[in-house]
Design goal:
This is SGNH hydrolase. It holds the Pfam family Lipase_GDSL_2. InterPro entries: Iah1-like, SGNH_hydro, SGNH_hydro_sf. GO terms for molecular function: hydrolase activity. The protein is of the alpha/beta class. 37% of the residues lie in helices and 10% in strands. The protein has one domain: 3-Layer(aba) Sandwich (Rossmann fold), CATH 3.40.50. A 5-stranded parallel β-sheet has the order 2-1-3-4-5, with helices on both faces. Helix 5 links the parallel strand 3 and strand 4. Helix 2 crosses helix 9, helix 3 runs parallel beside helix 5 and helix 5 runs parallel beside helix 7. The model has no long low-confidence stretch (mean pLDDT 96).
Length: 258
Amino acid sequence: MATNAQDAIVLLGDSITQDGWSPNGFAQRLANAYVRKLDVINRGMSGYNTDWIIPVFEQCFAKQHEQQHLPKVRLLTIWLGANDAALPPSGQHVPLARYGTNLAKLVHLVASPDSPYYAPHTRLLLLTPPPINTHQWRVTIREDDPTRELDRKFEVTAQYAEHVRAVGREVGVPVVDVWTRIWDAAGHVEEQLSEYSYDGLHLNDRGYALVYEEIIKAVSENYPELHYEKLQPVFKLWDHINPQNPGPDLQKRSIFPA
């Protein structure tokens, strides 16, 4: 990030995060809510699992000695698991235990003073993968290959979602329970998950609306100082500028205590 950029929210994840820039996606909604206050940086990597995202994080997140010269990451969301939960022999599959270890490592990289990426100003949220609609996903994957076997199971993805909750408790990081929110919205009927997903795995705008609501709720409950309504614009609103002497009012300001 350029040194004159605003502080930021960084979204780390897989295709469900990457697609968050789609119209009415959760990233687009966050960017709209935090406009002029915090930049939203999307580091969603389609197809990636927790094994592969760690090297990405280490190249995208500033080390301690670099942070003093850069805008600060105020919120980091970590949303992975939809691909880790793919069934073996899929190359995306990450065993459940290692998945939990990887999530804990990502948290450690940011939250531990022993880490070269330690950022005490960064708040973290872990997100569970959403439930998969295997009925819808089977149709999707067989459009190109009618013989392709189903590579995900509803109950397996549920196990990965539960593991996120467990890791969150262990490392003391709030969990945005996307799985439960969407499963409840679907009335606990797998086929009705199609109301929140366009292909059985990835979310549509209705699904993303629920994710956005849950993220804002988690911020409000755990990091209220980061709620968009509590933040002032980095640059003053136009009606707070002195037309006779605008220069002082047009200077970038920090919206957080030093």
